[in-house]
Design a protein that fits this description.
With 325 residues, this protein is α/β, with parallel strands linked by helices. It has a single domain, classed as NAD(P)-binding Rossmann-like Domain (Rossmann fold, 3-Layer(aba) Sandwich). It has 11 helices and 17 strands. The strands form 4 sheets. Strands 3-2-1-4-5-6-10-15-14-16 form a 10-stranded mixed β-sheet, with helices on both faces. The protein has a 3-stranded mixed β-sheet with strand order 7-9-11. The longest helix has 22 residues. The chain starts with 7 loop residues before the first strand and ends with a helix.
Length: 325
Amino acid sequence: MFYLKDKTILVTGGTGSFGKKFISKVLEMDVKKVIIFSRDELKQYEMAQEYTDPRIRFFIGDVRDKERLFSAFDGVDVVIHAAALKHVGVCEYNPFEAVKTNINGAQNIIEAAIDRGVEKVIALSTDKAASPVNLYGATKLASDKLFVAANSYTGNKKTRFSVVRYGNVVGSRGSVVPFFKKIRVTGKIPITDERMTRFWITLNQGVQFVIDNLNRMKGGEIFVPKIPSMKVTDLAIAIAPECEVEFKGIRPGEKLHEAMITEDDARRTLDFGTYYVIQPEFPWWNAESSKGGKPLPDGFSYVSNTNDQWLSVEELRNLVRDKSS
């Protein structure tokens, strides 16, 4: 990963689960500086006690504040945009707040990055952005489209934007794993529907995928890793085999199965073996940009219930036991 050598990297939402793991990873490389940009002073204070590397800087700010971003991006080479309002229920009941952070914040990131001459920006997306049924997914779909289209507005600037889209992260904040672990003491595990499936990725895998794509990206791609699916009922058995399962019914904004590539997106998606690339529809995107990728068959879609990779109960148990793996 020689691209990051001597670079200054800024991570929005850097005090979250992804940010902490990403920062730990890049500090092992010969980077010049890592800037944590987030709005929670307590989390920054606590993180500063844990991470004492002199290359780390902390910057209080909100992605809704364009002027603050302009200041923070001065001298920055790489931006990883991980800040978002991402709790489905919270976004459903606070829709304008989700729009301000996830959509307006994305546009602010784009404008500040172009103005400040940032080299590369990768925005983190979610499987909920493909055929969204909840507001969180809809705002992330809008964000994805903003970042892809931003490559057409850079003019003579060097800034390039790409997106990484993946599924649920084992043990991250807001994940079902800590919730199941907490509630198991009651002897009952609530599940919305016994048919429910999800894509599953570890924090390390997600971080490494982002770092890998900083090297691969040309600008405008949506990168999607090939990851396994799991049944939520299997996860409950893995975490709390002694508990009774209660089926509560699907909540507002929730899907039975998640998608990462829709059938319509698949027509412009290439298979690169361990990952997919949804190609941008740019005049300058050509065969050279797509070198090494194979077109997908007609009717293809990448959905959690039709995935050809599945995690067993034992594999889930091992992942949950070592959620940082």
